[in-house]
Amino acid sequence: MESEHPIILDGGMSNALEERGHDLSDQLWSARLLRDAPGEIAAVHRAYYDAGALVATTASYQASVVGFERAGVPRGEAERLIASSVRIAREVRDSMADGRQRMVAASVGPYGAMLADGSEYRGRYGVSAATLRDFHGPRLELLIDAGPDLLAVETIPDVDEAAVLVELLAELDFPAWFSYSIEGSHTRAGQPLADAFAVAAIDPVVAVGINCCAPEDVRAAVETAVEVTGKPAVAYPNSGETWDAGGRHWTGSSTSPTTLASDWLAAGATYIGGCCRVGPTDIRALAAAIS
């Protein structure tokens, strides 16, 4: 998974699905389409690969047994749907016939994503480490068994949750990148990034960094990640717009990742892409700029 050259990631799954006409306003968010329209998820993966992404991030960010059961999906079917997120991405990857080496990263979102109340932007859920372990452990095993190239442990807002995930990753010994959701020089829960990155610096983790944040916060965070961990950095911020959890809509203006990518590379980023509100057009421009 290591590379001397930048590795282009994809962009946001949900915004790409919304642009294709899908309503993702329920609590399952994009995970609903694993059940209702898996072909649309495949189409988004293909669009990002065609745009130049070398990594497809699966539609499992908000997919959990608890979340599916809450929506009336039986446990066995919920487990099948979570695993299918990897199968869908792998089938698209394997159908590409141009000889480029592409990967599938199984998305592992935070506990707060399942709550669907915006708490993935706050952390500090008020639950025990045992509860977090019981939530994350079985899902990690389902995703790994489905055969991704690596895990994308992403949008983690809190060092306490990170510590649980890192312990599980060490036990499972499967490659992953680990990225925090941040605000300025702190996690969303308010912990210093240097402390947060140090927690994630274990052997199975191939890259440490940030995602789902403001583009202007990336460079300093990448520099800190590289300094603290000595590992390649991963960086895929939002477009610059801000999510209003109460109103459930985006506000503000956007910035293409292309305009800042050279700064992120200079700071030590190896894995570069986009998160919320960054689409295939943006990734195409990013890939062209970096190449």
Features:
single chain, alpha/beta, TIM Barrel, 8-stranded parallel sheet, 12 helices
Polypeptide structure, described:
This protein has 12 helices and 12 strands. The chain has 291 residues and is of the alpha/beta class. It has a single domain (7-290), classed as TIM Barrel (Alpha-Beta Barrel), CATH 3.20.20.330. The protein has an 8-stranded parallel β-sheet. Helix 7 crosses helix 8 and helix 9 packs across helix 10. The longest helix is centred in the N-terminal third of the chain and has 21 residues, at 75-95. The two termini are 19 Å apart. The mean pLDDT is 92.
Condensed summary:
Pfam families: S-methyl_trans (PF02574). It contains twelve helices and twelve strands.
Straight-line N-to-C gap: 19 Å
Spatially, the strands of the biggest sheet line up as 1-12-9-8-5-4-3-2
Number of domains: 1
Taking pLDDT < 50 over at least 5 consecutive residues as the criterion, the unreliable ranges are none
Q: Which percent band covers the strand fraction?
A: 15-25%
The main β sheet shows up as: 8 strands, parallel
Spatial extent as radius of gyration: 17 Å
CATH fold type:
TIM Barrel
CATH superfamily: Homocysteine-binding-like domain
Give a count of the beta strands, DSSP E runs of length 2 or more: 12
Q: Kindly state the percentage of residues in helix.
A: 40-55%
GO molecular function, one term: S-adenosylmethionine-homocysteine S-methyltransferase activity
Keywords: Metal-binding, Methyltransferase, Transferase, Zinc
Cofactor: Zn(2+)
Organism: Kribbella antiqua
